[in-house]
Structures are given as structure tokens and as C-alpha cells.
Write a structure and sequence with these properties.
Strand content: under 5%
Largest sheet: none
Number of helices: 5
Distance between the termini: 27 Å
Helix content: 55-70%
Radius of gyration: 25 Å
Oligomer: single chain
Structural class: mainly alpha
Length: 164
């Protein structure tokens, strides 16, 4: 029963947050709210981006940062050291930093001495272990994908104003 209350609480929180967060994001995107402009202005100046100009699909430029005003290919130009440094830091933290604790855990597991079979051990070469391992992998994978798949229609209904 507590799972049902968790879902109800999640839907209520999303319904309340949708109205206020959506309005706030629309105001930010339209330029009506600029409370972080003291951070944006130096970043725009360093990167050579004109925040007032529009980025159309015809203006993508593969070589010049100054002419593309923050396009998707802005990091390719020679003046884009800022973009390259930020991308390198993001790559290191997002992809490679997770490898250190995983390798440390694997090392500690590899260094353990084998334990003889007894009433408190679980064999890892049995069909039961393989079934449980496969089930855990499928459940964790489903928990990663299914919330986004199931929340998509709910968000669509909220965005079209059908619930309120």
C-alpha cells in the first residue's frame, strides 16, 4: 500500500511543480527573468557569443567560433579553449571518474580468499545464481528506462492542459 502512496505523492509533487517550474522556465527562455545574468555575461564575453542573436540552421560554421554564436560546433574552432577545457573536464568526470571506484571494488573482490561451501554460502556456478543475476539485471535496466517511458504521456497531458 505504501508504494501506491509513493506514486500518488510523486504525481501530486509533479503536478504542483509543473505549473510553477514550467512558468519559470518559459520566463527564462523568453528573457523576462535574468537573475543569473551576472554569471552569463562573463561567459558570453569569454566564449565570443552574442546572446541577442538567433542561431539559425544556415549559420552553422565548423571552423570559426566568432561567427556561429554558440552553435553545436563551437568547440571545434581555435579560439574555443574554454569549450574544450569544459568538455574535457566533463568527459573525465562523467565517464572515467566512475572507473576508479569500480576497479577498486573489483580489486578487493579479486583479492578475497575463496570460502569453502557451507550452509551460509551461495554457489555462483548454479542455474539459480544465473537466473537471479539475469533477473536483477533486467529489473535494474527496466527501472532505468520505464520511468521515462511512463512519465512521457503524463507530461504530455500536463503540457496540453488536460488535467487542470
Amino acid at each position: 500500500m505504501s508504494f501506491a502512496w509513493t506514486i500518488v505523492a510523486l504525481v501530486v509533487v509533479m503536478a504542483v511543480a509543473w505549473r510553477f517550474l514550467g512558468s519559470y522556465m518559459a520566463a527564462v527562455f523568453e528573457g523576462r527573468v535574468r537573475w543569473l545574468s551576472f554569471i552569463e555575461r562573463p561567459v558570453y564575453r569569454i566564449t565570443g557569443v552574442d546572446p541577442e542573436s538567433e542561431q539559425a540552421w544556415q549559420r552553422y560554421d565548423f571552423t570559426s567560433v566568432a561567427s556561429n554564436n554558440g552553435s553545436a560546433f563551437a568547440g571545434i574552432g581555435a579560439k574555443a579553449a574554454f569549450y574544450n577545457i569544459i568538455n574535457a573536464i566533463g568527459l573525465l568526470l562523467g565517464r572515467f571518474a566512475i572507473m576508479v571506484p569500480v576497479l577498486a571494488q573489483a580489486g578487493t573482490l579479486a583479492a578475497k580468499e575463496p570460502v569453502h561451501a557451507s550452509a551460509g554460502t551461495f554457489r555462483t556456478d548454479s542455474p539459480m545464481f544465473m537466473g537471479l543475476l539475469t533477473g536483477v539485471i533486467l529489473i535494474v535496466g527496466a527501472l532505468t528506462v520505464l520511468p521515462a517511458v511512463s512519465l512521457g504521456p503524463i507530461v504530455e497531458q500536463f503540457s496540453q492542459g488536460r488535467f487542470f
